[in-house]
């Protein structure tokens, strides 16, 4: 289940109704797996609130992390050289672009601009605020470019050709371009988590709302898009449920599982 725009309300909470439904679902023996673009530290509050014991999918699938054992089950970082080239190209074209890197569960950047910040950035400070050369010397789990939407759209089009087959990109918010290794997807990560849990594909129910959820919705045996989902997600979903501010995700799980 995706978090932002799906399970979480507009004010980034799990409603009491959704929490109660998911508690019953979990008590019935269903594995609840959170699949998010967020890093582990930004998912843990929701994971703990739901009293989960499953692996979580982070960074759109670039990292699969198991909190109970504190093990990294899968990691698909961008090679340091490729990440360095991308940052060089971005800054050469647009010196004002904000560059951040998530490496496992740590945040590195050389500049913070309050006008452009992620949901995680609103609650967490960088682990290292320093010149890029001091930290862009290792594989990067997720590279983030932030700034004016037209600038990021231009960069995304350029990178799609310049780094074809090397990276995959998601621009779910106008001011944020997320860049990950080409093999990264929530679908692949979900496949690995299902295997880890011994769950067959046909027994997987996926719920999402955005473009980065489409592959996951297509892979799962049953898929649900919330009413506020993007057109791409709505087009591939088996079922459409209520709005994320109306407990649509949890109500769909309750209805489809009969719990």
How would you briefly describe this protein structure?
The chain has helices at 3-7, 16-27, 40-49, 80-93, 119-123, 149-162, 186-197, 214-219, 231-236, 248-257; strands at residues 56-58, 63-66, 71-75, 98-103, 106-109, 128-129, 142-146, 167-173, 176-181, 205-208, 222-225, 239-240.
Describe the model.
This protein is of the alpha/beta class and 259 residues long. The chain folds into 2 domains: 3-75 and 187-257, Rossmann fold (3-Layer(aba) Sandwich); 80-181, Hypothetical Protein, Haloacid Dehalogenase-like Hydrolase, Chain: A, domain 2. The protein is built from 10 helices and 12 strands. The protein has helices spanning 3-7, 16-27, 40-49, 80-93, 119-123, 149-162, 186-197, 214-219, 231-236, 248-257, and strands spanning 56-58, 63-66, 71-75, 98-103, 106-109, 128-129, 142-146, 167-173, 176-181, 205-208, 222-225, 239-240. It has a 6-stranded mixed β-sheet, covered by helices on one side. It has a 3-stranded antiparallel β-sheet with strand order 1-2-3, sandwiched between helices. A hairpin with a 4-residue loop joins strand 1 and strand 2 (63-66). Helix 2 (16-27) runs parallel beside helix 10 (248-257). The protein is globular. The two termini are 17 Å apart. The model has no long low-confidence stretch (mean pLDDT 95).
């Amino acid at each position: 289940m995706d978090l932002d725009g799906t399970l979480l309300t507009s004010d980034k909470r799990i409603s009491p109704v959704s929490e109660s439904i998911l508690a019953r679902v979990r008590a019935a023996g269903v594995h609840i797996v959170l699949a998010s673009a967020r890093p582990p530290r930004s998912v843990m509050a929701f994971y703990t609130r739901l009293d989960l014991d499953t692996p979580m999918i982070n960074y759109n699938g670039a990292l699969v992390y198991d909190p109970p054992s504190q093990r990294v089950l899968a990691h698909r970082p961008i090679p340091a050289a490729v990440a360095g080239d991308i940052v060089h190209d971005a800054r050469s074209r647009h010196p004002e672009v904000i560059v951040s890197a998530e490496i496992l569960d740590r945040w590195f950047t050389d500049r913070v601009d309050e006008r452009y910040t992620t949901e995680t950035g609103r609650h967490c400070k960088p682990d290292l605020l320093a010149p890029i050369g001091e930290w862009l010397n290792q594989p990067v789990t997720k590279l983030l470019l932030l700034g004016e939407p037209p600038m990021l759209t231009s960069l995304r089009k350029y990178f799609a050709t310049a780094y074809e087959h090397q990276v995959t990109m998601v621009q779910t918010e106008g001011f944020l371009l997320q860049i990950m290794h080409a093999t990264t997807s929530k679908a692949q990560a979900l496949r690995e988590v299902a295997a880890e849990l011994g769950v067959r594909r046909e027994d997987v129910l996926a719920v999402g709302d955005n473009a980065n959820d489409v592959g996951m919705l297509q892979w799962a045996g049953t898929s649900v898009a919330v009413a506020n989902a993007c057109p791409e997600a709505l087009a591939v979903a088996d079922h459409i449920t209520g709005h994320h501010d109306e407990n649509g995700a949890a109500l769909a799980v309750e209805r489809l599982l009969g719990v």
